[in-house]
Amino acid sequence: MKTTLTEENYLKALFHLVDHEGKVTINELSKFLNVKMPSVNNMMKKFAEKNWVIYETYKPLKVTEKGRREASLVVRKHRLTEMFLVKKMNFGWENVHEIAEQLEHVHSTIFFDKMDEILDYPKFDPHGEPIPDKDGNIIAQDLQKLSNCKIGETVVFTSVTLSDDAFLNYLTERNLLLDKKIKVVKIENFDKSITVEVDGKQEILSRKATDKILVKK
C-alpha cells in the first residue's frame, strides 16, 4: 500500500530528528511539524503497526530499520528533485526546496530512478546533503559547524543544515557557495560572530549563520 502525503511528511521529520540511537520524542515531532501531540501519537501508533517505529507510552520512539529505510527514500526523492532543478533546469539553490516539497510525493520509483540516471547518480544535493541510494543507504560525513572552527583555520564549505530561501540568499550575496575555501580570521568574544575570508574578501557572519554552515578540513 502506498504511503500518504501526511505519512511521508512524518517519515521525513523522523529522518531529520532522530538521534544517533535512532530515537526521537513525540514532543520533538509535534514541534517540528507544528502538529498537536494527540495527532502525533495517533500517527505513531499507525507507524508502529507498520513496524516503522517502536512505540511505548511515555518513552521516546525508536525508529526501526524498516522505518529508517522508508524515511530515507522520501528524502531521496526530495534531494534528487532539488539536484535536477539546479543542474538541469538552472534554478538557484535557494529556489528549489518548495518545488521539491511538492514533487517528493510522486510515487513512481521509475521516475526518480530515471532522474538519478540523467544526473549521473549524484551523491549530494545542491545544499551538500547526501542523497540516499535506492536502498535508503546514506553516506556518512565527518563535518563540523563553522562556529566550532578556530582562528587561522582554513576549511571547505561542504553543506548547510538549513535550506531556507532567506538563508541561502544571504550566503549567495556573500559569495559563500559550496566547495569554497573559508579562512577564519577573527571571532568576536561578545556575540561569537566570525570574520571569514573567501576569495580574498572578508565577511562578518553571525553565530546564527555559522551554526548552520557545515565544513570539513
TrEMBL record:
Record keywords: Activator, Cytoplasm, DNA-binding, Iron, Manganese, Repressor, Transcription, Transcription regulation
Membrane-spanning ranges: none
Domain HTH dtxR-type, chain residue ranges per copy: 1-64
GO CC, one annotated term: cytoplasm
Keyword Secreted: no
Gene Ontology terms, MF aspect: DNA binding; DNA-binding transcription factor activity; protein dimerization activity; transition metal ion binding
InterPro entries membership: DtxR_MntR_Metal-Reg, Fe-transptr_FeoA-like, Fe_dep_repressor, Fe_dep_repressor_sf, FeoA_core_dom, HTH_DTXR, Iron_dep_repressor, Transcriptional_repressor_C
Subcellular locations according to the entry: Cytoplasm
Subunit structure: Homodimer.
Protein family (similarity comment): Belongs to the DtxR/MntR family.
Free-text function comment from the UniProt entry: In the presence of manganese, represses expression of mntH and mntS. Up-regulates expression of mntP.
Protein's name in the database: Transcriptional regulator MntR
